[in-house]
């Protein structure tokens, strides 16, 4: 029987980082997209970022795409939320970083907990798998048909982490017998809403998982269930969301985020070459 891992305050937590993305906005496959190109503009190794619930316009994911572009990947950050991200104001007051969490009173924690169902209860039904997966599959198909594209990877964060796992199931046939979706390799960073083992059993391409030891949604027991299938790293004292929404001014958080970036670069260098 599958164990479903849900979403909580940590999915609405984190830090908006400073910096100016160097890529560009475009329209590709019917979706608004942030594009960050490697030196020389080669599309041979293309990487699709599947965002968290805060969407494609948040600086964090764009800055991260820029880092992967520097490493030689042609990066796409499509708007798979249909222009309906959650506001980043939640990042200021709902389960922030570990240091702040430890100073919260019981009342504050209860207040934060009450915000979650009120927020996600109306948002999630608009972004079900039946709505979102076809958007991602269609975008992947568009990238696959783009001249110069060879191998495609997907990297997902939090809510988007599950969709990176689903794309690691490989290509599927649509009603007309055509291949849809699927990537050559994937990485899921602190995924939420996953079913264990249901979402992992069909994985047919290399999939890497990055989670923290203080992730409230993917506890160590759950991670242990997929340990034999995943190439993974466990990041000490890191909460859910650390790979995309860490505070760069915090040495430990920045170190974990940097190591996750390196993990991803090494992973995709290996499997998209």
Automatic annotation (TrEMBL):
Question: Which molecular function terms from Gene Ontology are attached?
Answer: hydrolase activity
Any coiled-coil regions, as ranges: none
Short name of any one Pfam family annotated for the protein: DLH
Protein name per UniProt: Dienelactone hydrolase domain-containing protein
Q: Which residues form the Dienelactone hydrolase domain?
A: 32-272
Organism expressing this protein natively: Ramalina farinacea
**Family annotation (Gene3D superfamilies):** alpha/beta hydrolase (3.40.50.1820)
